Every structure is written in structure tokens, then in C-alpha cells.
Amino acid sequence: MSRASLEKKPAEVAAMFDGTAERYDLLNTLMTGGQDRRWRREVVRALAARPGERVLDLAAGTGTSSVPFAEAGAETVACDFSLGMLRVGTRRQAGVHGLSFVAGDALRLPFADGSFDAVTISFGLRNVADTGRALRELRRVAKPGGRLVICEVSHPPNAVLALGHRTHLRYGLPLLGRVSSNPGSYHYLAESTLAWPDQAALARLVQDAGWSAVRWRDLTFGVAALHHAVNPG
Where is S-adenosyl-L-methionine bound in this sequence (predicted)? Predict the structure, then answer.
């Protein structure tokens, strides 16, 4: 099975996720001890999608994260560059009203300027080769006043918790990967998490991309973080 390097070449990352598409949601749950479901509920609350709005869920994978926005009455687009993920998603989410799947690259989104009332990305931004460019693309397709919510892995600010978290990433995830169908993906996810910027550094990247009112809050003691921002237009 494929694994990607920290160079995050799009073809490598897409191939890795193609290979894990059928078990992707289970993989997330195993890696996070079930916390991913609670984190996604926090995203739904933070984005506060409303009927009649148009929402982009980028790096949506199988669309599990997109369904609640559609159920809230928003026209929801689940976008991902892994065709394997999209195939699984269209099958699993068949019949969900208001949800569509679109293949797209985060660095060249296939949408017109100002297309969405809200944009969100969960656990996908660290897989993009150019974080700043992806954040600028998200701003481009958001309407003036449009909302951004990012849910991503992060780093616990508490030193003791941070040490335990790093130990889990360096040794726990690779050990779990030994019994998986794609052990390389566990190694990549551990390495990409360790290399990812902390909460404040990501907030600066969001602000540098032109977003305003940037703020964040920790989830599960900082293992993940939720960043909010607004497109000033």
C-alpha cells in the first residue's frame, strides 16, 4: 500500500488516501480513541450552517463530516482530491439531500470567487503542500463575511501532556499500523502531526492569508484545535 512523504506531493497523498478509503473513518476513530466524533460535532456547532447557505467542506473524504451541514439545510459540497474517497462517499451518502461530491485540489479549487457562505476543512490542511496558498484559495471562494472553521491536529500546551502525545505519535501509531492494511499511512499521519505548527502559528498563517477575526480554542487539551476566521471581503 502507498504512503506519502512529508513533501506532500499531491499524487502520493491522493494515492495513500485512495488506499485507505474504505477504512478511513475507522482509521480516524482508532487513531483518536473515538475523539474524532466529538471534534466533528464541535465543527458543526462552530460553523452553524443555516438553511439556504452554501457550504464547502474541503478534504471531506467520504463525506461523513459533510452530512450534518446538509441535514441543517445548507447546500453542501464535499470536495476532495482522492477519487477513491469520493467513490466511497458517493456510495455511503447516497440519498443525503443537498450534498454533492466534487473532485478538487485545495491549491486550485474548481469554484468561482465568492461561491460559499462558509468553508471548512477538518484534518486535511496538514496534508496540503502549501498551507498558505490553500488558505488563500479558501478565502477566494468564500463570500465577503464568509466563515472559516478549521479543525486540525495540534499540540497540547501542557508539557506533561505534550510528552505523552509525542510518545503516542512516535511509537503508538506505528505499532497500531502493524496490524492495519496500510501501515505506511499511520507512519505518515504520525510524522505529519509532529511536524505541524502549533495553535498560535497556524493562527498566524490564517491571518497572513487575509482572514480576519482569527481565534482558536483547544479540543481535548490541545490534541486538536478549532480555528475560526471571517473573510473581510
Answer: 62, 80, 105-106, 122
186-233 pLDDT tens trace: 777 778 888 899 999 999 999 999 999 999 999 999 999 999 999 997
Return d(Cα 11, Cα 63) in angstroms, integer.
Answer: 21
Could you give the CA distance from residue 61 to residue 124 in angstroms, rounded to a whole number?
Answer: 9
CA distance 78 to 120: 10
CA distance 115 to 193: 31
Backbone angles phi, psi at 121, to 5 degrees: -145, 130
CB 212 within 8 A of CB 229: yes
> Which segments are annotated as binding site for S-adenosyl-L-methionine?
62, 80, 105-106, 122
First-to-last alpha carbon distance for the chain, in angstroms, is 43
For the stretch 149-199, pLDDT in tens is 999 999 998 888 878 777 777 766 666 655 555 666 677 777 888 889 999
Beta strands in 52-141 (DSSP E): 54-58, 75-80, 99-103, 116-122
Which residue, chain included where needed, has cell 447557505?
53
CB 156 within 8 A of CB 223: yes
Strands 75-80 and 142-153, how do they pair? unpaired
**Greatest distance between any 2 Cα atoms in the chain:** 48
**3 state DSSP class of 24:** helix
Residue set of the binding site: 62, 80, 105-106, 122
